């Protein structure tokens, strides 16, 4: 199975500052169609996960442009610029290229 | 608007089975597969499996494949996930989500509690 390793696992941030979460895969994520199915999700307490980013860097509809995804090969990053209070929660990366699909452990973002 | 509405919370005894439903609306059901994910209390997300709604083909995570069955009913746009021989380790919130490569819309979750 492809192991997705996130860091850090806990990320205290100051409102208005930026935050970065790393996600590394144990193997490359290029799918047969040439795309890389690396996704990012945000989960607030008591809520369902919400997809933020798909295929490395594509922002979902309604997701603020403060969120950006980047990366290639086996290293991927989610960046949140100008963190707001509503950004707290747990962020997960997920690879959709290989069977079984796998998630990272999650990164808990909280306000300092 | 796309919606996935799941069945209500369940309490089961060890050894029993549970069947969770996920009713889709707002899109053509046969256009997307359905992914199932679970989350134990205080833990992360665990991918369980996926079903191709068009032909019923499934892929299950290895550690569940002897106990899980995913099905769909295209006449009602509903997906189902049945888990058998439940133990306390199966206590979790179970989610369905649309799609497989990049699940986009998610159900509200169904809490399954396994307790004697």
Overall geometric form of chain B: globular
Helical content band of chain A: under 10%
What is the radius of gyration of chain A?
13 Å
Helix count of chain B, per DSSP?
A: 0
Average residue-wise pLDDT of chain A: 97
- Total number of strands of chain B: 10
Instruction: Please give the alpha-carbon distance between the first and last residues of chain A.
Output: 36 Å
Fill in the keyword field for this structure.
heterodimer; A: mainly beta; 7-stranded mixed beta sheet; 11 strands; 0% helix; 48% strand; B: 116 residues; mainly beta; 6-stranded mixed beta sheet; 4-stranded antiparallel beta sheet
Describe this structure in words.
The complex is a heterodimer of chains A (about 110) and B (about 120). Helices cover about 0% and strands about 50% of the residues of chain A. Chain A has about 110 residues and is an all-beta fold. The model of chain B has no long low-confidence stretch (mean pLDDT about 100). Chain B is an all-beta fold and about 120 residues long. In chain B, the strands form 2 sheets. In chain B, strands 2-10-9-4-5-6 form a 6-stranded mixed β-sheet, with no helix packed on it. A 4-stranded antiparallel β-sheet of chain B has the order 1-3-8-7, with no helix packed on it. Chain B contains no helices and 10 strands. The interface between A and B is medium-sized, with 25 and 23 residues.
């Amino acid at each position: 199975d492809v192991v997705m390793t996130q860091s850090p696992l806990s990320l205290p941030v100051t409102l208005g500052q930026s935050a970065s979460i790393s996600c590394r895969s144990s193997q490359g994520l290029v799918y047969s169609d040439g795309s890389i199915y690396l996704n990012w999700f945000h989960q607030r307490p008591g809520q369902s996960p919400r997809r933020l980013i798909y295929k490395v860097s594509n922002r979902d509809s309604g997701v603020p442009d403060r969120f950006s995804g980047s990366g290639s090969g086996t290293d991927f990053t989610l960046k949140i610029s100008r963190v707001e209070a509503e950004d707290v929660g747990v962020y997960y990366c997920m690879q959709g290229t290989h069977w079984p699909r796998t998630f990272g452990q999650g990164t808990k973002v909280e306000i300092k | 608007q796309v919606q996935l509405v799941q069945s209500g919370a369940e309490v089961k005894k060890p050894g029993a089975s549970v069947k969770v439903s996920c009713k889709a609306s707002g899109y053509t059901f046969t256009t997307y597969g359905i992914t199932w994910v679970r989350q134990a209390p205080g833990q992360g997300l665990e991918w369980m499996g996926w079903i191709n709604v068009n032909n019923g083909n499934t892929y299950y995570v290895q550690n569940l494949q002897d106990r899980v069955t995913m099905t769909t009913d295209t006449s009602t746009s509903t997906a189902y996930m049945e888990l058998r021989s439940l133990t306390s380790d199966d206590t979790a919130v179970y989610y369905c989500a649309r799609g497989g490569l990049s699940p986009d819309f998610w159900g509200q979750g169904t809490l399954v509690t396994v307790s004697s």
